[in-house]
Design a protein that fits this description.
HIT family, subunit A; ten-stranded antiparallel sheet; three-stranded mixed sheet; alpha+beta; 6 helices
Length: 327
């Protein structure tokens, strides 16, 4: 029987309809990635990066870069102007998209994995993200920084070379505003601290856990095999967490993606980092969402905003716990 579950972070209802699920083997792997122009060299490969000034880079023992942050050549946000709303008509409201838009290249290898080929890669990527968030917090017109990883064209990636994006925004986006409000009105303390504790006691939705992080298929999962990564230490901002703590989150992301690959093949996915807005001191607990692209959004979901999840999170977590995962 289908039922509703409330996502406490967003206040939205999710419908769980396990009876409509396809077999796990029916989930399709992503299509082969196609570059925007296959006749041109990949702009993220080392040979194309010669002479490109990085914002930040990590060098190996031989002086070659193995991770770097560069400006996005086609930024969605750019400029140092303060956020100002303009009315160009009775229902036409706009503002300048000031801010910054960066690309973090997680490996010089074109066939590497964006979440990290090794645990050390994943730790280094998280440290790089932390450094960029720290820098953004010092920029007057950046109120919020969003880091994302898109893997596969179905998940929004236009280039197959392993990379992610960091966007410094002049406003706080609605998704974060909704989460802030949810944290503020939750009467049991912190939503995610309470969630981590409850899931550890229950156990059926936990994929993995250690002293630094809890990885679950959340009770309110909106899509099949959705994963929530919760740092065990209660910090508002990603930048408040120790290097060991953010590194552990990076390894947890890598391990969760490996489990998804072991269960479903080379699927497309999105990794979304949610942290409190810069200088915000209210109620919040930073965390990471991992969304595999296993199904498409249909008319009912778009028309109502109510998601239908055809795989119960308990079933998804059990599958991900049991699959053999390469180290």
């Amino acid at each position: 029987m289908s039922h509703l579950r409330l996502n406490l972070l967003t206040g939205r209802w999710v419908t769980i309809v396990s009876s409509r699920a396809k077999r796990p083997t029916d989930f399709a792997e992503r299509k082969a990635q196609v570059e925007s122009d296959p006749n041109l060299p990949c702009p993220f490969c080392p040979e194309a990066q010669v002479g490109v000034p990085p914002i930040l880079e990590r060098l190996d023992a031989d002086g070659h870069w193995h991770q770097r942050v560069i400006p996005n050549l086609y930024p969605a946000f750019d400029g140092h102007e303060s956020f100002a709303v303009h009315h160009s008509g009775p229902v036409h409201i706009e503002a300048d998209a000031s801010g910054t838009h960066e690309v973090f290249i997680t490996s010089p290898k074109h066939t590497g994995r964006p979440e990290g080929d090794t645990a050390d890669d994943a730790i280094a990527t998280m440290q790089m993200i932390k450094e960029r968030f720290t820098e953004h917090a010092q920029v007057p017109n950046i109120r919020y920084t969003q880091a994302i990883i898109n893997h596969g064209r179905e998940a929004g990636a236009s280039m197959s070379h392993p990379h992610g994006q960091i966007l410094g925004l002049p406003f706080v986006p609605g998704e974060l505003v909704d989460e802030q409000r949810a944290f503020s009105r939750f009467e049991g303390g912190c939503i995610l601290c309470a969630t981590a504790q409850a899931e550890l006691v229950d156990g059926v939705r936990v994929i993995a856990a250690n002293d630094d992080v809890v990885v679950v298929c959340p009770y309110w999962s909106e899509t099949p095999y959705e994963v929530l990564i919760i740092p065990r230490h209660h910090d508002l901002h990603l930048t408040d967490t120790s290097d060991q703590g953010v590194g552990a989150v990076g390894v947890a992301i890598r391990d969760a993606v490996n489990a998804l690959r072991a269960a479903h093949g080379d699927i497309a996915f999105n990794v979304v980092f949610h942290t409190a807005p810069h200088h915000y001191q209210g109620d919040y607990h930073w965390h990471v969402h991992l969304y595999p692209t296993l199904i498409t959004t249909a008319g009912f979901e778009r028309g109502t905003g109510v998601m239908i999840n055809i795989v119960a999170p308990e079933q998804a977590a059990e599958t991900l716990r049991r699959v053999p995962v390469d180290a």
